[in-house]
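Figure S4 source data
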Amino acid sequence: MIKVLVAEDELPLLRGISRLIEKINSDFTVVKMAKTGKEAMDYLEEYPVDVVFTDINMPVVDGLELLEYVSGKMPSAASVVISGYQDFTYAQKALRFGVKNYLVKPVDKKELEQLLEQLKDGFYARERERKGRMLGDMVHGKIVQGKKQGQGAAAFCRIYPVYLIAKAYCVYSMEEEELEPEIWKDWKVEEFPWLDQYGIERIYSYDGRNANEMLLLLEAADEPDVEGLIGRMREWGGIGCPVAAAVGEPAADGTDMRKDIGKLQRKIYANWIYGRSGIVDGEGEELFHLSKTAEEALQYMIKNRQYKDFRKLMLDIKEQMRLEGITQRSLERCLDNIMMFLRAYGTAFQGKAEGDLRYEINGIVVRADNLDEIFEEFLLWCHELMFTESEEDTKALMGKLDVYIQTHYKEALSTKMLALEFGLVPSYLSKLFQDYKGLTPNHYIQEIRIEKAKELLADCPGMMTKDIALMIGYADPSYFSKVFKKSTGVYPSEYRIKDK
């Protein structure tokens, strides 16, 4: 309900305008009828309102003083001047206090009806924006309870959190160079036109940890049809890859929303059947198990370098996974166990922590579009590890890769592109290069670009930042500035001033 104060020194007009406002639009309720500006200000000291209608010529405190008070104390409130004085000077003075609406007595009913509709639209737009900012602060842990912002539990018991992950769950924060074009880039969720069909009044969206993740907060009187919503939105947004969603309980008073969101992320990872779209539920039951016989056979083949038989058995395992359904977490655990067999019977993993291998396996799953691609890359990796080149050959190959990066750093390089160029699996190439250089290829490329940027900023003071970004391989100047700040602690413009 939109709370209104009406200030008018002529009692019949005060009552008439107040009744007319409530009669014309039921979203408005007149909470105070003040006969003087002083009476209005005394009320507003205790009880803020959303809209103030005021006459200009009133005793004790006139309308202009009241408008000045409202502008200073309640800047979000809308003000409307109602006056028999048609002199433009009054309107000019009122403009200084943010007044955009001016009605002349006697008030025209149709004119008031149009004005109330505009005020209502503005009020609800501001409410959505304010609530969205507040929810965003809660999502990012800046506040932990809605009550701290003057919100009661009723404001949050209708907010349903929904976490979305497209394609696959990534256990780490991916660098933007590792990502394909953002899935949600043109997905203007707030403009989705069919919310009411799924029992939703309003929707708020926030970025997830990575570009393939998104958080939705759905405002609804009852539990909404999230599964129907997600299916329709995938069609609407033209998303071809699988999308998993986990739905949480209403946020109550907003306590620990960030923790609740973390639970939704983990729920997806533990229960998402790889490659399927829909609502993720369940208690993490494992649908797929690698038999003891299969494990022993794989170990024997790895130990004796029988790659042909190893590949055949792995492809059979893949089809069994596809048939039975496998969660992403189970899939990664299975591949991780096989990698441990390779670790046990080879020397390629000396000095490599087990946790690092799990990250690399997760990277294979995140980069792939389907189960076939996962196994193809994983099998290539296994082949390279089972038949490793000599240390001298590996060092020579990485030296060539180093030179290639230094020569082509201005181009759109990525680990995946480099792997294609040098005939290696991306994850294995990254491991070899990190052992050789102490940095992943992506970090090394970034390091070279930042050093070149520093040189250009110092030597070419007249060159624009966007041109420098293009010269060193960044098509997006804003992203270049972000990377530069992360690397150096200052933005390019600040670095240029500091260098002087």
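Figure S5 source data
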Amino acid sequence: MRYYIIIPAHNEAGFIEQTLHSLSTQTLAPAKIIIVNDNSTDGTERIIDSFSDRNPAITKLSTQSSTEHLPGSKVINAFNKGLSSLDSNYDFIVKLDADIILPANYFEQIAAIFSKNPDVGIAGGFAYEQDANGDWKLNHPMNKNHVRGAFKAYTRLCFDAIGGLKNAIGWDTVDELLAQYHGYKIYTDDNLRVKHLRPTGHAYNKKAKLMQGKAMYIMRYGICITLIASLKMALKNKNWKVFFANLQGYYTAKKEQVPFLVNEKEGKFIRSLRWKNMKKKFL
């Protein structure tokens, strides 16, 4: 299968060399790798250039976006800039972070998943992060059927059906919800162990605390599902501030009439799916 990779990169000099090395050893090589150098001020560009000089599949694009790092905005702006430079001659497309090390057979296995399961629209492995002892431990805070935003692969048909990636907090949840709305399945393979070199949310600023609640509002969760989801998050994090921050974010977005990410019909499907999944856990 033919696939493209888009990598948003902002000040990734400490990690991107390992990411690109892992891509250069893939048993199924990507047809194109677009690296969007987003306002980097460290050695990121030099490292990209050293790889692109040796690999004709790698293309560097430079952009100057805001230095403010909020989830779901800066990274998707960079991704979409890379996407605009590509044609649609691919079987699947990958959004990849610049702090990831992939096993050598990663995309060979992803291609096999899509080939064998035409109803699968999104696929990926699981993230492992180093603990204080240097051991690689599974870090997957979401449900096991969720693919982390750091390494998401989409078939072209699914990607087109969901309208690409939404430039908003919650983009890597609403993509899967919309994929299911359009009849596609999500596939995760726990044999594909991805090394994530930097903890999730490390670079996010303080405004990000309120954005989970905003995401729940713009995905049309409604207050009941928002309350339950926020309670679950607070218990998991052992921090009640998470619960209240989510509610503050939700009601702030409602007061400001922030535009929804999905239409009413999609929202109804999302709420129904959420209730269905919650009932499965309690029955």
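The CA atoms of residues 127 and 194 lie 5 Å apart. The chain is about 40% helix and 20% strand.
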